[in-house]
Amino acid sequence: MDLLIFQAPILMVQASMDGILLGILFALIAYGMALQWGVMNIINIAQGELVIMGGYIAYFMYLSGIHPAFGVIVSPIIMYCVGWGMYKLVINKVVDKDLFTSILATFGISILAQQLMNFAFGADVVVAQSNFGTTMLFNNSVTLPNAKIFSGAVCVISAIILVIYMKKSKLGRAIRATAQNARAAKILGVDTEKVYAATFGINAALCGIAGACIAITFTLHPYTGLPYTVRSFMIVIIAGLGNLPAVAISGMGLGVFEEWSDYLLGTEFRIAAVFSLLVIILVYRRFKLARKREYLK
Amino acid sequence: MNKNTLLYAGLIIFGLAGAFIFPAYKLQLSFLYILIVLAMTWDVQGGQMGYNTFGNILFFGIGMYVASSTQIAMFFSLAEWTDAGGEKTFVHTIPQFFQGFGVGILLAGIIPTIIAGVIGYGILGLRGHYFAICTLALGIAAGELAGGIEIIGAGQGMTVPVWPKGFGSNASSSQFLYYLSFILALVTFVTLKWAYSTRFGLVLNAIRDNEDKAEAMGIHTMRYKIIGWMVSAFFVGIAGGLMGHINGYIEPTEIAFAGPTFGVFMVLMAILGGKGTLWGPLVGATLFHLFKEGFWTYFLGWQYVALGVLIIVIVVYFPEGVMGWLREKYPERFGEVVDEADLKAQVELK
Q1: CB B293: neighbour CB atoms within 10 A?
Q2: CA distance B135 to chain A (A)
Q3: Cβ of B137 and A43 within 8 Å?
Q4: Strands, E, within chain B: which ranges?
């Protein structure tokens, strides 16, 4: 098995390039999760469903004859409204409760969203063809679909826009203030309810952009949301809340890990590798942070 | 003869006679007993200990696979069995079936218990939502791994040995499973009732209320957490073994390691009934089963939508559960003393 790495080094380069482009996508989704986790202290299990939903918007555009690449503009706008509605209907009831309540409530949302997407688009694996062609590198031995490069660029640009927005705009400042101390922000006149709704909406919009990118580069299926949630959770716990460079790096690392495990272990163990890695990281973290019992000297 | 004795006697008589009173619903009732076991064992972690696990489904799946694989591998080659698929090339004789069944169910309890003990030290050190997500990942990873292993049928799953021909009548298979599930639910209930009344139960509650303080008082909390998880794993494993036989077919992600369905159901049942109480999970499982069957009958096609809505409604609007609601309504029945003067003072303040 380990020989496979040395037998075809060029394939590992290919897997790494794919992994990095995939990882940028994960990092964008994870940044949304870090945002809502930091600001509202909820863990959104339906994060992956928001991504898939955003992807289906791009796919719907593709079906109606519009080029799916425009999905990266339309999908975040629609998803912002979806996220806002989700906040008003359910999330605002669980914001001040403990994390487990939010996990379960969003799990309910995730089941609901899966089924509704299943009714709307059917249980087939779909992909929105972008016809972007491919780029050949290294003497035609590494192929990179232009769609993947496009999606990577879109994610980087939207992340930069978001960072500038959070730094400069009034709402961005309100969001950061609420994340630091919701009560103090409230005293100083920040409408935290509005801030929460906006945060959840921005998170959904980020998922929408990532989903539209996934629609043109990978495949969509109503039930494949949960792995995206787990990936973003994993990236957030490695990188910490609100540390964008670390989120980007660990996202790319995860992407490369996935492509390598896909290539070395076989595609059927891909999801298993992701979930096992999460368990290993959490247990490693627990032993690293564990207190040692020592007698006072 | 007080009320409690009457209640217990009534439930046991219902359980014993149920197979004859509702012959058409025998499988449904055995399913209900399995759900009760799942909810009650979840409550050991989630309710009593304050560790919200999604990972008990791991033991359910392992128990299911262990029970049937043992029963098959004792007499035939497991690889050939799964290759043959549903063609029923291999047939257990009557003594073979029951020998295999007994050993299989026993191992289905023991192996998950050992696994819980081994992984417990690493996993139970996690707190709060890290524990919840880690166990969620554990269950799903197990399902995906089982879906990649050829000898137990990979993604296609495997068939469970069928009831031997010529032993009893047609109905005796379901009767047999009915009574086994009932006995399992009864034993689980009695064991947990006893355990909660001992020091063990007190320690679990102490961990829930404040783990650091409990540790500072000199309790080896990790030891108790692991034992608690092992107790759950034992009963859940056996429940899984029985469930394999009730289904007649094992599939890795939809039936055995069904995190998004059974893994969440057990949490919901406990919350619906009221977590942290002895009777809550039992009441919750019964209500939930009724809801679920109602959805599957009247909203066919939309059942998962109804289920998602039910989850949100229970968690958001009804988090204290039936028992919690009853406790608020009739506190004196739960042995709580209500100070009338204090209540009056509170009302006046408002």
Answers
A1: 15
A2: 8
A3: no
A4: 158-159, 249-250
Verify whether the Cβ–Cβ distance A111 to B125 is below 8 Å.
no
Q: CB of A69 within 8 A of CB of A216? A: yes
Query: What would the pLDDT profile of A37-73 be if each residue is shown by its tens digit?
Result: 888 888 888 899 999 999 999 888 888 888 888 888 8
Q: Which helix (DSSP H) or strand (DSSP E) does residue A87 occupy?
A: none
Q: How far is CA B73 from each of CA A148, A189, B112, B155, B240, rounded to the nearest angstrom?
A: 48, 70, 18, 20, 18
Which pLDDT value is given to residue B297?
80
- Give the integer Cα–Cα distance in Å for B284 and B268: 8
DSSP B6-56: HHHHHHHHHHHHHHHH-GGGHHHHHHHHHHHHHHHHHHIIIIII----STH
Supply the pLDDT for residue A121.
82
| Angstroms from B16 CA to nearest CA on chain A | 36
CATH class of A3-289: mainly alpha
The rounded distance, in Å, linking the Cα atoms of B54 and B31 is 20
Q: Give me A183's structure tokens.
A: 């009560």
Per residue in B134-145, pLDDT (tens digit) is: 888 888 888 888
φ and ψ at residue B162, rounded to 5 degrees:
-85, 155
Q: What is the pLDDT of residue B127?
A: 81
CB B130 within 8 A of CB A282: yes
**Amino acid occupying residue B93:** T
Domain boundaries, chain B: 26-319, 320-350
Please report the pLDDT score of residue B335 as a whole number: 66
Give chain B's residues under pLDDT 50: none
How does A75-100 read in b/e, with b if 16+ C-beta sit within 10 Å?
A: bbebbbebbbebbeebbbbbbeeebb
Quote the CA–CA distance of B236 and B234 in Å, as a whole number: 6
When scoring B119, B299, B307, B311 by the number of chain A Cβ atoms within 10 A, the one with the most, hence best to mutate, is B311
Under 8 Å between Cβ of A84 and A201? yes
Burial of B259 per CB tally in 10 Å (0-12, 13-18, 19+): buried
Residue B336: per-residue pLDDT: 65
CB contact under 8 A, B155 and A268: yes
Give the pLDDT score at B14: 81
Cβ <8 Å between B133 and A278: yes
Among A228, A201, A199, A204, residue whose Cα is nearest residue A214:
A228
Type and span of the H or E element at A142: strand A142-145
Query: What local confidence, expressed as pLDDT, does residue B170 receive?
Result: 67
Instruction: Quote the minimal CA–CA distance from B240 to chain A in Å.
Output: 22
Where do the structural domains in chain A lie, given as residue ranges?
A: 3-289
| pLDDT in the model for residue B225 | 92
Spell A42-58 as b/e; 16+ CB within 10 A means b: bbbbbbbbbbbbbbbbb
Name the stretches of chain A with pLDDT < 50. 1
**B248 at A interface, C-beta within 8 A:** no
